[in-house]
Design goal:
Number of helices of chain A: 4
Strand order of the largest sheet of chain A: 2-3-1-4-5
CATH topology of the largest domain in chain B: Rossmann fold
Oligomer: heterodimer
Structural class of chain B: alpha/beta
Shape of chain A: globular
Number of helices of chain B: 10
CATH superfamily of the largest domain in chain B: Aspartate/ornithine carbamoyltransferase
Distance between the termini of chain A: 39 Å
Strand content of chain B: 5-15%
Radius of gyration of chain A: 17 Å
Helix content of chain B: 25-40%
Number of domains of chain A: 2
Largest sheet of chain B: 5 strands, parallel
Helix content of chain A: 10-25%
Radius of gyration of chain B: 19 Å
Largest sheet of chain A: 5 strands, antiparallel
CATH superfamily of the largest domain in chain A: Aspartate carbamoyltransferase regulatory subunit, N-terminal domain
Order of helices and strands of chain A: HEHEEHEEEEEH
Number of domains of chain B: 2
CATH topology of the largest domain in chain A: Alpha-Beta Plaits
Chain lengths: ~160, ~325
């Protein structure tokens, strides 16, 4: 099935953000990471497990009337580092944004270990996580060295 | 200036060089020679939780080499109780001193301090994290006894879950190709992420609950204290702790050159009957804390230890 065909599963949006090539089954995690939940007032369309030539299967999210910020892209990098993000204005792609999961994630999420020095929120240095490997994703706190579980990290978004 | 936060901060070659320096500094550590290599330098001792050996051996190391020491003192009487952040405390002590030795109950505190400081930080224990200066003295003790660090069989026993000394030591021993036997009650097993790290680095690691069945072909048996508060009830504690006690009677078939080590303080895990055997090495190990830390401070402050200490040192 072509990408064009799969995109027709949801209607085109006038203004907002399209996040494509999300690993299959990760769309809900992406929404959680971006803080887009049921209480959000903007319309959100989501398709999961649609066929993809490149990935086999993928998820797609369309968020209307909202353009992702750099901070949100940095959060997205943890869940879907290879996703494609397009800003839509007047039904056209106005901008393609690049997600970059580098060797370190700084001030995006807080270490999940309860005895880490960074649990004192008055400490001023940045929250730093080191990316040990991208696939599978393996992240450790720069300070305490503890490995981080993605499901717990999502609850510690800054 | 870089400090020592984990053993990853040192290459094997740097470790060996520091141990060589320590060997030459032994007469200075024993007080037989005076060699003021660190005259005019000040060590800041920041112990945010109790310490006897580590704090005192840092202080002795500095003073034996002619340096001075300032102490944080009791945390209860410091700015920490007023809510001062670690960052602010470090900013202050960084200005007062040339190097800092630190112990803190929070894991990651030493790295955090190093990122906040200009002077080198020596991690003297951060929560259940690392204790690399203890590892340096442990490696010194093992090499002193066996003449090498390569390819030894080492049993690490007791509380491997919360014991930070064994976390740092296991990493270092792996780098020197030692075979590790991790003997502990199931509840106090070495954290999974550390065991998988060791295996990823090619370590030959065996996990067991049977200490006494593991010691006869060992070169080193490294005991640690099992703490009562780790267990839900006293019966379970008594059952577990009982299986991790060494008595002189247990040593009849061990290798003659095998050494028994312990970071101290011990409670019941090494019976006093072991003290008089040729295998008891823990008090010498505690003394080695001074000489290993002397060499480490010199290394971090880029002060060269003379090749011929005997001819350069003065009589006390």
């Amino acid at each position: 099935m072509s990408n064009e065909h799969s995109m027709r599963r949801v209607t085109a949006i006038r203004n907002g953000t399209v996040i494509d090539h999300i690993p299959s089954g990760q769309a809900l995690r992406v929404l959680e990471m971006l803080g887009i939940g049921g209480k959000s007032s903007v319309p959100v369309s989501l398709v999961m497990n649609v066929p993809s030539k490149k990935m086999g299967a993928k998820d797609i999210i369309k968020v209307e009337d909202r353009e992702l910020t750099q901070t949100e892209l940095d959060r997205l990098a943890l869940v879907a580092p290879d996703a494609h993000v397009a800003i839509i204005r007047a039904y056209s792609v106005a901008e393609k944004l690049t997600i970059n999961l580098g060797s370190e994630v700084s001030n995006v999420v807080r270490c999940t270990f309860s005895n880490c020095i960074t649990t004192n929120l008055r400490e001023p240095l940045p929250h730093r996580l080191k990316v040990i490997s991208r696939d599978p994703l393996h992240i450790r706190c720069h300070y305490c060295g503890r490995p981080q579980d993605l499901d717990e990290l999502i609850k510690n978004v800054l | 200036m870089a400090g020592l936060i984990t053993m990853d901060d040192l290459t094997n070659e740097q470790i060996i060089n520091i141990l060589d320096d320590a060997t030459r500094l032994l007469p200075v550590a024993k007080g037989e020679l005076y060699l003021p290599l660190l005259q005019g330098r000040i060590l800041g001792n920041l112990f945010f939780e109790p310490s006897t050996r580590t704090r005192m051996s840092f202080e002795t190391a500095m003073k034996r080499l002619g340096g001075n020491v300032v102490n944080l003192g009791d945390v209860k009487n410091s700015s920490v109780v007023k809510g001062e952040t670690l960052f602010d405390t470090i900013q202050m002590v960084d200005g007062y001193t040339d190097i800092i030795a630190m112990r803190h109950p929070r894991q990651g505190a030493a790295q955090y301090a190093q990122d906040s400081a200009r002077v080198p930080i020596m991690n003297g224990g951060d929560g259940a994290g690392h204790h690399p200066t203890q590892t340096m003295l442990d490696l010194f003790t093992i090499r002193q006894a066996h003449g090498t660090l390569e390819g030894l069989k080492v049993v690490l026993a007791g509380d491997l879950r919360y014991g930070r000394t064994v976390h740092s030591l296991s990493h270092a021993l792996t780098r020197f190709g030692c075979e590790l036997v991790l003997a502990s009650p199931n509840l106090l097993k070495m954290p999974e992420e550390i065991v998988s790290d060791l295996r990823e680095h090619g370590a030959n690691v065996v996990e067991t609950e049977d200490l006494l069945g593991s010691i006869n072909d060992a070169d080193v048996v490294y005991m640690t204290r099992i703490q009562k508060e780790r267990f839900a009830d006293e019966d379970e504690y008594a059952r577990c702790a009982g299986a991790y006690k060494l008595h002189a009677d247990h040593l009849s078939e061990v290798k003659s050159e095998m050494i028994i080590m312990h970071p101290l303080p011990r409670v019941d895990e090494i019976h006093a009957s072991v003290d008089s055997t040729r295998h008891a090495c823990y008090f010498n190990q505690a003394f080695n804390g001074v000489v290993a830390r002397m060499a480490l401070i010199c290394y971090l402050l880029e002060v060269a230890v003379p090749m011929d200490v005997e001819s350069q040192g003065g009589v006390i």
